[in-house]
Design goal:
Layout lengths: L8 H9 L1 H8 L4 H27 L24 H30 L5 H26 L4 H24 L8 E2 L3 H27 L16 H28 L4 H26 L4 H23 L2 E2 L13 H7 L1
Antiparallel strand pairs: 1-2
């Protein structure tokens, strides 16, 4: 059994001044560990979407009527607040789990050898999005579930999912310059697909903001639009995304593209079909909560699948050349 080295006073001071550098000097995670850390952050970003939807769909949006405390007198939910308080406070607690997952991804990326600055920055980007969205979530509560702030809250979470997806992909690549696997016209088609998907998400937030699930049993402000009309616009955009995906698959087959882009496009098409079925069923069955929740999960998975198609259009071969990491990087990252 190996002897545990003594920690000197200088080590303790270094750990306090620059904890990430201190850990990186003493721990080298395997590439698989870094990949799992990035995947954990991505999974938690999807989980927070689902639990946030559960808060709204159970009418628990104001289960904790204030922020950052649950009530003016209590940091946590009390028994008098019932199940709504427990659901809302539980969702707040999951934010700490998300922070832990993102923190693990940052530490793993910072400790990887050779050092990869781009990967560490993606981890810090997730951290600051989580912090900003936590504050925005508090504002949502303080303004009584204003639908515009609720929409912004969901869009910020979609941004978090995007960064987490890119980081997960980058953990399985090198840092060499990207090499395109398809032609420029195919790349342009995929960017049209990404743009249509972003528009689909934005219109989806309007459907939510105008629809019947306000997030609380009390009188909550709604967006002044006809939600059924907006739902039809949302459906049209969904069909546009499906059509672009099918066209992309056809083009990739025609130009004999590599398997990577083809498989990612196929996966996206399958997810879109499942999401479309859920969407139409929930529309014609007066929006049952369970189907709305599944549709929110499908929205997150669709967005990830779209981004994976985009990222599959190029490759970054792994490099074995060591890249020295500046000693001050962790300090700079903590201030970023």
């Amino acid at each position: 059994m190996e002897r545990v080295p003594n920690v000197t006073r200088a080590d303790a001071v270094a750990a306090v001044r620059n904890p990430l550098a201190f850990i990186a000097e003493r721990w080298t995670p395997t590439p698989r560990t870094v990949q799992r850390a990035a995947l954990a952050a991505l999974v938690m970003s999807v989980v927070i979407v689902v639990t946030g939807g559960a808060v709204r769909l159970t009418g628990s949006g104001l289960g904790c009527p204030t922020w950052p405390k649950c009530t003016d007198d209590s940091l946590t939910a009390t028994s008098e607040m019932g199940v709504h308080g427990a659901i809302e406070f539980g969702n707040r607690l999951l934010t700490y789990v998300l922070c832990a997952a993102v923190g693990w991804a940052i530490v793993a990326a910072r400790s990887q050898k050779p050092y990869r600055r781009s990967l560490t920055r993606l981890g810090w980007a997730q951290f600051w999005v989580v912090m900003s969205n936590a504050v925005l979530g508090g504002i949502v509560v303080l303004v009584g579930l204003n639908p515009y702030t609720v929409a912004a809250h969901f869009v910020a979470t979609s941004a978090l999912i995007a960064v987490a997806t890119v980081m997960w992909q980058r953990t399985r690549e090198g840092d060499t310059a990207p090499r395109p696997l398809v032609g420029r016209s195919v790349q342009q088609l995929v960017w049209f697909l990404v743009a249509a998907s972003v528009l689909l998400i934005l219109v989806g937030t309007v459907v939510t903001g105008a629809g019947p699930h306000a997030g609380d049993s009390s009188e909550v402000e709604r967006m002044p639009v006809d939600w059924e009309s907006v739902s039809k616009v949302h459906a049209v955009l969904a069909w546009i995304v499906v059509s672009l995906t099918f066209a992309l698959w056809f083009v990739l087959k025609a130009v004999d593209a590599p398997e990577g882009p083809l498989h990612r496009t196929r996966d996206l098409f399958v997810i879109l079909l499942a999401q479309g079925v859920i969407g139409y069923v929930q529309y014609f069955t007066d929006l049952p909560e369970i189907l709305v929740g599944l549709h929110m999960l499908g929205s997150a998975l669709t967005w990830i699948a779209v981004l994976r198609v985009l990222l599959a259009l190029r490759e970054r071969p792994e490099t074995t050349v060591d890249q020295p990491g500046p000693a001050a990087e962790a300090t700079a990252g903590s201030r970023a």
